[in-house]
Specification:
Elements: H1 2-19, H2 25-42, H3 52-63, H4 70-77, H5 85-97, H6 104-109, H7 119-131, H8 138-151, H9 164-175, E1 180-185, E2 192-196, H10 197-211, H11 221-234, H12 251-256, H13 269-286, H14 326-329, E3 333-337, H15 372-410, H16 412-431, H17 433-451, H18 459-462, H19 467-471, H20 474-484, H21 488-500
Parallel strand pairs: 1-3
Antiparallel strand pairs: 1-2
Helix pairs in contact: 2-13, 3-5, 3-13, 5-7, 7-8, 7-9, 9-10, 9-11, 11-13, 15-16, 16-17
């Protein structure tokens, strides 16, 4: 019993060391070959051209200098229409891996001419352009602008979008400009901000280290594979760096532990293809070759035979702790640009400012202009004044109409007398020129009176029960009516004459 317990304890003590056993170049090469065999038999890359598994499989084949039906693959992708920016960027890179250069209009549609709202898409655009040799002529400035914009997207914790995959892609994109300082002018101010790609990469790698699990991975095989390619692009050894060996495990051992005897990873085409890319990337780094996402390089991977010594299994550019050493010896290159505007929060990884160049706010709308408030208020006051005047006039007309109807119903003789008086006044006007001129004069006075500015009646007075009385005093109306009627004696005489007749 004691002997069995001792065996178990010994196995437990040795397990971390066996899990962390470094993979030699031959070991990694064997895993690559096994993955290729499984993918060819199970993923049907030509038939599934444009899928994630097929595209990454083609890239891995190309970077291992394998002969393949690349022309058939290009033909199979020629009729595809990408539905997302990520799909399009991956499709462009798989074509580049086949030696196919696509039109600038198509490439630009998903890179420098696209509306890139995330760090992952922006980094993907940089990788796509650089990996396929689209960085010549005018595209060079486009890539520089994209890189400057990407630098402004880094968060204070070193991540990009607080996401492992976005951060890994950003490290790969920034690694093309290692040893470079970007001086950017703010998009909404005149301040200048300096960003160092080396500082940004170091901060991002620190974030990735903090996000790593105790099993050596980053939650998924896909994330872990991209982290390996990101570390390879900066010269950081994923197998020996103290930042990425956790609890006896590292990113390479994490994927290795998920490899099956048939060559697949998790029996998944997607996981197997991206793992093949990660293994190829690491093998190339161990041999000092060009980075994985550099499909125009003509260097050839050395084939390692069984039992053959390949020298050190560590990256040649790394220091003792596995971190890159070349960046520190480079004299920084300075690039001054005005980056493309971004609506995302901006951060300076160098100055540790939460926000770098002020975020782009777009053109001013009419309601945003400084004088728009005053103009709007003035227009509102004029509208209110016109409304009050119209209400007062309508109210007066209604009151007069109601008064006339009441007079006709209850005092018909008075209404008839008023009608005769108005008619008589009209006849006199037609027969007398002086009276006509006088009437015209009265009309002019009336028009002048109407044209005069009138006092605006406040809204609260309209609800006052005594408002109508104030507007048209009843006493004055009675006096006006009396002035139009003939004298009382004259009315009696007229009545007497009518009776006699």
């Amino acid at each position: 019993m004691k002997k069995a317990a001792a065996v178990i304890l010994t196995a437990c003590m040795l397990f971390p060391f066996s899990a962390a056993a470094e993979q030699t170049q031959y070991d990694i090469q064997t895993k690559i070959e096994n993955a290729f065999s499984w993918l060819e038999a199970n993923a049907q890359p030509i038939n599934a051209a444009g899928s994630s598994a097929s595209d990454y499989y083609i890239m891995a084949l190309s970077r291992m200098n394998k002969d393949y039906r690349y022309a058939s693959y290009v033909n199979a992708t020629s009729s595809l229409t990408p539905t997302t920016i990520q799909d399009a960027q991956r499709l462009i890179m798989s074509n580049s891996a086949c030696g196919e250069i696509l039109s600038n209009s198509f490439v630009g549609m998903f890179t420098y001419d696209a509306e890139l709202s995330s760090a992952a898409d922006t980094a993907g655009a940089i990788i796509t352009l650089r990996s396929g040799g689209y960085d010549s002529d005018n595209n060079s400035s486009n890539i520089i602008n994209l890189t400057g914009r990407l630098l402004t997207m880094q968060q204070s914790n070193g991540s990009f979008e607080n996401d492992v995959l976005s951060t890994a892609k950003s490290v790969i994109a920034l690694s093309y400009y290692r040893g470079t300082e970007f001086t950017l002018q703010g998009t909404a101010d005149n301040e200048e901000y300096t960003y160092s790609t080396d500082s940004a990469i170091d901060s991002a790698i620190s974030y990735l280290s903090s996000a790593q699990g105790t099993d050596g991975g980053f939650s998924t095989v896909f994330n872990t594979a991209y982290v390996i390619m990101a570390l390879d692009s900066t010269g950081t050894d994923a197998q020996s760096s103290s930042l990425f060996v956790k609890n006896g495990s590292d990113p390479i051992s994490y994927i290795t532990s998920r490899c099956s005897e048939d060559g697949s990873v998790n029996s998944s085409p997607d996981d197997t293809a991206i793992s093949a890319c990660a293994f190829v990337s690491h093998l190339r780094a161990m041999q000092g070759k060009a980075v994985f996402f550099d499909f125009v390089s003509q260097d050839t991977v050395n084939t390692i035979l069984s039992g053959e010594s390949a020298g050190s299994n560590h990256l040649s550019e790394s220091t003792d702790d596995g971190t890159p050493s070349s960046a520190a010896t480079q004299s920084p290159q300075s690039i001054r640009i005005t980056p493309m505007p971004t609506r995302e929060p901006e951060h300076s990884a160098v100055n540790e400012e939460e926000y770098g160049p002020q975020q782009f706010v777009g053109p001013l709308r009419e309601t945003d202009r400084p004088d728009s408030g005053t103009a709007s208020e003035t227009h509102t006051d004029e509208s209110n004044s016109s409304s009050y005047t119209a209400i007062a006039v309508i109210g007066a007309v209604i009151v007069i109409g109601l008064a006339a109807l009441a007079l006709l119903r209850f005092k018909p003789e008075l209404f008839e007398a008023m009608r005769k008086a108005v008619s008589k006044h009209s006849v006199n006007k037609n027969n007398t020129g002086d009276k006509e001129n006088e009437h015209k004069s009265d009309e002019n006075d009336l028009i002048s009176e109407i044209d005069k500015p009138h006092e605006v009646v406040p809204t609260e007075e309209l609800y006052d029960p005594d408002f109508i009385k104030k507007l048209i005093p009843v006493d004055e109306i009675d006096m006006s009516i009396d002035s139009l009627l003939p004298a009382e004696d004259a009315v009696k005489d007229d009545t007497q004459d009518e009776k006699e007749q």
